[in-house]
Amino acid sequence: MECTVNWTGLNSATGSKSGMTFVAETGSGHTLVMDGAPDEVKPQNGGANLAPRPMETVLAGTGGCTAYDVVLILKRGRQDVQGCSVKLTSERAQLDPKVFTKIHMHFTVTGKRLTASAVERAIAMSHDKYCSATIMLGKTADITTSFEVLEV
Fold this sequence. Notes:
Elements: E1 3-7, E2 21-26, E3 31-35, H1 54-76, E4 80-92, E5 100-112, H2 116-130, H3 132-137, E6 142-151
Parallel strand pairs: 5-6
Antiparallel strand pairs: 1-2, 2-3, 4-5
Helix pairs in contact: 1-2
């Protein structure tokens, strides 16, 4: 797996190369724009709020990784899963490096005749065995999960 990240640096307000915008191109040929938060004290060091922050993309990628696993595990278990969303909330360390220290994932899984035990098992399998992102972030963060099952 590979990815190339390029600093565009463009400040949309001034047109100068003083911003903190980056474009990542993944090995599969997709692009992702990231930007820094505006810095009121030193505007030249901040972003323009044009895109997600890099750490937000880490959190989003983790959610995508685990949701992918949950859906796949349920499908392989012949469950009639129709939808899956996961809301992630997090806390980060106050000092650099500002790693994630707590992450909570709340899954909402919809389908026909889904059992809570099947969903709970799928989440646990993702969390404990398959989701590389969750397992990696679990080295610095306390990761907790909850879920609800909705009949459609």
